[in-house]
Recover the amino acids of this structure.
C-alpha cells in the first residue's frame, strides 16, 4: 500500500468504489473507517482535491504516490471511465465529496451507476450528512421524512416544487442558499402555510452554528433583514391532513382497492385523510362488494 509512515497502515482494500462521507464542518467528525479507506485506497477521487488533501493532512494521512483525481459535476462523465478502468484492473478507489455524503445533493451518482453497471463493487463508508444532522436538532418528527435537496432558483419553478411537497405527510428537508433564503421563506408562508412548524439550521457543526425554530412565519420574521451566511438546511414539519368529502374518500378507496386488500386499503386511506379506521373499513367493505 502506498502511503509512507502513516498511522493508518492497513491491509489493501478489495477492488471497488468506496464512497466516503466527509465532515460538513468539524474535521474530527470523520469516521475511523473513512480514515482507514482514505489511507488504504489505491486511487483517490474527490469533488474538490484541495479539500481532500487538507482533510488528509489534518489526520496525518499521506497521499504518497497515489493518484488523486478531480471528479465533480462538470467532469464526472469524462472521469468515470478512468475510475472503471482502475477498478477493473484490481484497484480500490475512494471517492469523497467536498463535504458530506456523496450523491446526497453532491456528485457521485453517475460514477456509482457506471461502476454498478459493469458488475463491480460499490460500498459506502457512511458518516456526516447535513440533512441527517439537521433532522436531529430540528425538534420535528423524524419517523417519516423526505429529503428534497435544493429548491429551484427560479421563482415559478420553486413555487411548483413547494406545491408538490405541500400535501406530503412527512417532515421535509431542503437545502438552500443564503442568497435565496428570504425568497423561499416567503413562498413557504404562502404555499405551505404560515403556521407550519419549521427549523432553519445554519452552519451545522461549525463555530457559528445556529438553529432557528418556530412556525414558518416566525422563522421568516427572524430572518428578515439579516444577512445570513453559510450552508442552510430547512426542516419543515408535516402539514395538517386535509379534510375530504365522501366522494373524495370513495375515489381514494377505489384506487387503493385496485392493488390492496380491503384491510390495507382502508388503513392507507384512513391515514391519508385522518379518518377513523373502522369507519373507512366499513366503506371499503361496501365498495369491495359493489
Amino acid at each position: 500500500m502506498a502511503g509512507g509512515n502513516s498511522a493508518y497502515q492497513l491491509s489493501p482494500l478489495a477492488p471497488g468504489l468506496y464512497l466516503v462521507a466527509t465532515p460538513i464542518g468539524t474535521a474530527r467528525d470523520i469516521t475511523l473507517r473513512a480514515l482507514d479507506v482514505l489511507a488504504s485506497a489505491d486511487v483517490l477521487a474527490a469533488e474538490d482535491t484541495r479539500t481532500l488533501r487538507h482533510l488528509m493532512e489534518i489526520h496525518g494521512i499521506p497521499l504518497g504516490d497515489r493518484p488523486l483525481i478531480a471528479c465533480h459535476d462538470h467532469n464526472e462523465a469524462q472521469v468515470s471511465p478512468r475510475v472503471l478502468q482502475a477498478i477493473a484492473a484490481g484497484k480500490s478507489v475512494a471517492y469523497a465529496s467536498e463535504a458530506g455524503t456523496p450523491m446526497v445533493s453532491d456528485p457521485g451518482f453517475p460514477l456509482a451507476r457506471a461502476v454498478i453497471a459493469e458488475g463491480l463493487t460499490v460500498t459506502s463508508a457512511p458518516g456526516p450528512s447535513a440533512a441527517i444532522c439537521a433532522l436531529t436538532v430540528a425538534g420535528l418528527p423524524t419517523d417519516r421524512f423526505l429529503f428534497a435537496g435544493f429548491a429551484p432558483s427560479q421563482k415559478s419553478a420553486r413555487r411548483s416544487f413547494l406545491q408538490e411537497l405541500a400535501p406530503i405527510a412527512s417532515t421535509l428537508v431542503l437545502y438552500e442558499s443564503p442568497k435565496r433564503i428570504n425568497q423561499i421563506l416567503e413562498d413557504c408562508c404562502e404555499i405551505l402555510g404560515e403556521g407550519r412548524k419549521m427549523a432553519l439550521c445554519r452552519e451545522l457543526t461549525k463555530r457559528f452554528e445556529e438553529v432557528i425554530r418556530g412556525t414558518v412565519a416566525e422563522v421568516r420574521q427572524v430572518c428578515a433583514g439579516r444577512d445570513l451566511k453559510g450552508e442552510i438546511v430547512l426542516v419543515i414539519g408535516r402539514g395538517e391532513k386535509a379534510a375530504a368529502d365522501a366522494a373524495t374518500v370513495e375515489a381514494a378507496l377505489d384506487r387503493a382497492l385496485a392493488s390492496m386488500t380491503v384491510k390495507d386499503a382502508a388503513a392507507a386511506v384512513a391515514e391519508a385523510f385522518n379518518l377513523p379506521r373502522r369507519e373507512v373499513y366499513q366503506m371499503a367493505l361496501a365498495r369491495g362488494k359493489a
Notes: The radius of gyration is 24 Å. The chain has three domains: 16-128, 131-236, 246-289.
